[in-house]
Amino acid sequence: MTKPSIHFPKDFLWGCATSAYQIEGSPLADGAGPSVWHRFSHTPGRVQDGDTGDVTCDHYRRWESDVDLMQSLGLNSYRFSIAWGRVLPEGTGRVNAAGLDFYERLVDRLLSRGIQPMVTLFHWDLPAALDDRGGWLNRDIAHWFAEYANVVFRRLDDRVKYWTTLNEPWVVADGGYMHGVLAPGHRNIFEAPRAAHHLMMAHGAAVQAYRAVGRNQIGLVVNIEPKYPASQSDADLAATRRAEAYMNRQYLEPALLGSYPEELHEVFGDACPKWPEADLKLIKQPIDYVGVNYYTRAVVRSDPTAWPLKSTTVKQKQHTHMETGWEVFPQGLVDTLLWIRDKYGNPPVYITENGACFFDPPQVEGPVLEDPLRVDYLRKHITAVHTAIQRGADIRGYFAWSLFDNFEWAFGFSKRFGLVHMNYETLKRTLKTSAHFYSKVIATNGAAL
Ligand SMILES: OC[C@H]1NNC[C@@H](O)[C@@H]1O
Ligand SMILES: [Ca+2]
């Protein structure tokens, strides 16, 4: 029996995703102001092997040929972020024309090659000058962010059809303020929910600002990791509900429903803030789509000693190279997409990130690097997207993370997620077999899966 041919919707977006600090390098060039990640990566001990974003993929200087590479892969879209500090070096006030010009040239070249830009306004690289004023702990950041967003909307909304306010607010609050493993490196259960709330207020303020000047689409990108109980015991079921509320609902629900999940009180205890209704009204601005970043699932077990969730994840079998052992679990993507369809009224969804880091083969000099595990991962997860579409989920695009190997935050360059290999000494880009595989999938709109 021949395999039923797979077809995605006609104008489905096929892209790759990146972010400014992870690929650009030249963090202070042409008047740019430093970000919290510039400071964090230059603080000894914070990033593996002392790696920084000073050069990384040098995309800031190689952007023209990089766009041509994207075209050669057949991408019809490309998701990237704008470094706030290039546009507003102090975060507010003075605009750095050279910074805005860089992104305008990039957008123009993408469009000239038939590639739709999807632009993220904030992908973790907060201007250090704003962190000095409290950063995400200062309620005023909603206004600072809306001011920055307006500058960018006015310059680029005539060409950018898809906007994202924030990338993965959970990671910023959990990594940057709860556990202190990401910039700005705070470890404080009282700060984390306040940072989370101010991130979402900034999201709302930017969407509100967009509606006054924008004519296209704007959404929020969240990382969703579906939680499965390790057993049916009450303790594990409760731990699973807490974990789901803390990661998967804490951001989606204020944005879509204007409320926080009750379980957050169990997570934060007396650290749980009370917010004025006006805040939630601001956050709940209607958005045009939800961006979902999916990598893996978590199997959750109760663990009263684990701070702050009182739960831990149970390591599974085949997993990727991530220290925490991200399990390869494509069914979790189907479950996630159907969960969003059913729980939030089937909003338009883009898979704004999906990919894996594996122990890539030793660097062999040759036209292509073999990465069969990544091909297998992509095939299974793109198939999962198709399954969800067939079951009525409104999925409109897929972005592989990532175009290049790049700076994987506190893991530095030790984790390679790219479809294109990056030689960090020579900056040579080398396609992996996964790049060729993805090209075929795009060229056949899914039939080559
Ligand atoms: O961990 C892989 C990716 N996850 N989402 C956010 C990106 O910045 C990461 O590199
Ligand atoms: Ca360093």
What does this structure look like?
The chain is an alpha/beta fold and 449 residues long. The chain is built from 16 helices and 13 strands. The model has no long low-confidence stretch (mean pLDDT 95). The structure holds azafagomine and calcium ion (CA). Calcium ion (CA) binds next to loops.
In short:
The chain is built from 16 helices and 13 strands.
Total of helices: 16
**Class from secondary-structure proportions:** alpha/beta
**Strand percentage:** 5-15%
Helix content: 25-40%
**Major sheet: size, sense and barrel closure?**
8 strands, parallel, barrel
Strand order of the largest sheet: 1-2-3-4-5-7-10-11
User: Uncertain spans, ≥5 residues at pLDDT below 50?
Assistant: none
Shape: globular
Rg, rounded, reads 21 Å
Round the mean pLDDT to the nearest integer and report it. Answer: 95
Count the strands?
A: 13
The SSE string, one letter per element, is EHHHEHHEHHEHHEEHHHHEEEHEHEEEH
First and last CA, distance:
16 Å
Cofactors and ligands present? azafagomine, calcium ion
List the helices and strands and how they pair.
Elements: E1 13-17, H1 20-23, H2 36-41, H3 59-73, E2 77-81, H4 84-87, H5 97-112, E3 116-122, H6 128-131, H7 141-156, E4 162-167, H8 169-178, H9 191-213, E5 217-223, E6 227-229, H10 234-249, H11 252-257, H12 264-268, H13 277-283, E7 289-294, E8 298-302, E9 311-313, H14 330-343, E10 349-354, H15 372-390, E11 395-401, E12 420-422, E13 429-431, H16 433-443
Parallel strand pairs: 1-2, 1-11, 2-3, 3-4, 4-5, 5-7, 6-8, 7-10, 10-11
Antiparallel strand pairs: 8-9, 12-13
Helix pairs in contact: 3-5, 7-9, 8-9, 9-13, 14-15, 15-16
This protein binds azafagomine and calcium ion.
Residues 19, 22, 168, 293, 353, 401, 408, 417 line the site of azafagomine (AZF).
